[in-house]
Design brief:
The complex is a heterodimer. By secondary structure, chain A is of the alpha/beta class. Helix content of chain A is 40%, strand content 15%. Chain B is of the alpha/beta class. In chain B, α1 crosses α2. Chain B is globular and about 45 Å long. The chains are: A alpha/beta, B alpha/beta. Chains A and B meet through α1 and α12 of A and loops of B.
Chain lengths: 308, 182
């Protein structure tokens, strides 16, 4: 028995390798619950969780909601459309009003980086970051490393390349933190316009050719190309992106051994990844989704147990 | 937490004899091994259950199904404790419907863990009967829970604790009475 040293999950940057491993170990116990005839335990009975989604999300929102329900928490969902946000209320006022209704945990997704930190500063509730702008998406990275650990036994020593729009990706940043803390060798790959300028501080390799990335990796974590970036002029066309950075079977077959493929979803089939790769036996995309529920259960469990 | 050993209540030889007796009592009370299964509670109950199953196998020549239960997620003190207990693995690889289950734990104290374990078992189905086997009953119950099979009755005071040590994780078989200094 040992205490979990965090009140919130704002990002993985300030979590240690031990903290991450504790979440992964707990997630394994949670995964067993999901395989039972009655997939529910009474652990968080009486705990109220509000899911504040200021940005659209299908997978993450459903995954959090399922995780909360599997632990018997009461859940309230909020999405920005049809709320008083469209009437001009500030984030802080919205949050304070919600807290006045006695909420224990706030799961927040927001387009502004730092929104969860802002809430953590102003509210008493436990805050879980479900994605903030281009900053972090910690539970996604946790489920990615859990999926890799299940496949390889350990993340240590794995060569993982994150491919795509690194500069605008919260998945990439959280993945880099989690993978590096667990001892993986991490590289990023994408068009130069989508690689962050201050990349040196992250301690990752940079590859500008997808073929080089494939040659030197055990795992590719292929990010979704956000279609609105193309309108911003960061790369010429989707076809050109597909031609130079698309992960295709032909490209993967040049590698000496099969690469494991991750993708956080939703997939743009035929753009960043082809269907034959996404649906192949080396793709762990659906395992990621299953693990997502278990990881989020583990996070909610550990954060609500630690009473300071 | 610091503690001082006051007495060795059961040594390795006594430990084995107690388990042998418990195994025989379980078979006797259940009139054999038909529909009998043993479920050990994390952590030391798991090893006790395994040894009981081995002893039943030796005595009766028939193996009984063996499961592992972690009741952490069913505890009633989850939100009030300072530390969050580690959730461990539950593995019940058989259908408990209509079975005679023997739940095994090392020390029975307040009865709260057993209460949680009963709730956990109900989520796996409807057994015919659940019996409770403990190596040590130290008293001070806070719930209406009564064991069916008891290795040793050891009346204790509140500032004493009973520590069960097992070869599998502690390197020796023994039951110790210790005094805990806060």
């Amino acid at each position: 028995m040992s205490s979990f040293p965090h009140k919130h999950l704002l990002g993985l940057e300030d979590y240690s390798a031990d903290d991450i491993l504790k979440i992964l170990d707990t997630a394994e116990s949670m995964k067993e619950i999901l395989a039972r005839p009655i997939r529910k335990v009474p652990t968080l009975r009486g705990v109220t969780v509000v899911n504040l989604f200021f940005e659209s999300s299908t997978r993450t929102r459903i995954s959090f909601e399922l995780a909360e329900k599997r632990l018997s928490a009461d859940t309230v969902n909020f999405s920005s459309s049809g709320s008083s946000l469209s009437k001009g209320e500030t984030l802080l006022d919205t949050a304070r009003n919600i807290e006045a209704m006695k909420i224990d945990i706030v799961v927040i997704r927001h387009r502004a980086a730092g929104a969860p930190h802002f809430l953590a500063h102003h509210l008493e509730a436990v805050i879980v970051n479900a994605g903030d702008g281009c900053h972090e998406h910690p539970t996604q990275a946790l489920l990615d490393v859990l999926t890799l650990r299940q496949k390889f036994g350990s993340v240590k020593g794995l060569r993982v390349t994150v491919v795509g729009d690194i500069a605008h990706s919260r998945v990439a940043l959280s993945n880099i933190h989690a993978l590096k803390k667990l001892g993986a060798t991490v590289a990023i790959c994408g068009p130069a316009t989508l690689i962050p300028r201050d990349v040196a501080g992250l301690g990752v390799g940079v590859v500008y050719s997808i073929d080089d990335a494939i040659a030197q990796s055990d795992v590719l974590n292929v990010l979704r190309i956000q279609l609105e970036r193309q309108e911003a002029g960061l790369f010429p066309t989707l076809r050109e992106y597909q031609k130079y950075f698309g992960v295709t079977r032909t490209r993967l077959e040049k590698a000496q051994r099969p690469l494991t493929i991750l993708h956080p979803g939703p997939i743009n089939r035929g753009i960043e990844i082809t269907s034959d790769v996404a649906d192949s036996e080396h793709s762990l995309i659906l395992d990621q989704v299953t693990n997502g529920v278990a990881v989020r259960m583990a996070v909610l469990y550990l954060l609500s147990g630690a009473k300071q | 937490m610091e503690y001082r050993i006051k007495t060795v209540l059961v040594d390795a030889q006594g430990f084995d004899r107690t388990l042998t007796r418990l195994a025989h009592e379980i078979v006797e009370r259940n009139r054999g091994t038909a529909n009998l299964a043993i479920v050990g509670m994390q952590t030391r109950g798991v090893f006790l259950a395994k040894r009981l199953a081995e002893k039943i196998q030796t005595a009766e020549g028939i193996g009984v199904p063996l499961g592992t239960l972690d009741a952490t997620l069913y505890r009633d003190d989850f939100r009030t404790r300072l530390k969050s207990p580690k959730a461990q693995i539950t593995d019940i690889p058989f259908d408990i419907y209509d079975m005679n289950l023997v739940l095994v734990d090392d020390v029975l104290y307040t009865g709260r863990t057993v209460r949680a374990a009963l709730d956990a078992l109900m989520d796996f189905g409807r057994p015919r009967r659940i019996q409770l086997a403990v190596l040590v009953d130290r008293g001070h119950r806070e719930m209406p829970i009564r064991p069916d099979f008891i290795g040793k009755n050891i009346p204790t005071s509140m500032n004493e604790e009973v520590r069960v040590r097992m070869n599998e994780i502690d390197g020796e078989d023994a039951v110790l009475l210790v005094e805990v200094s806060p």
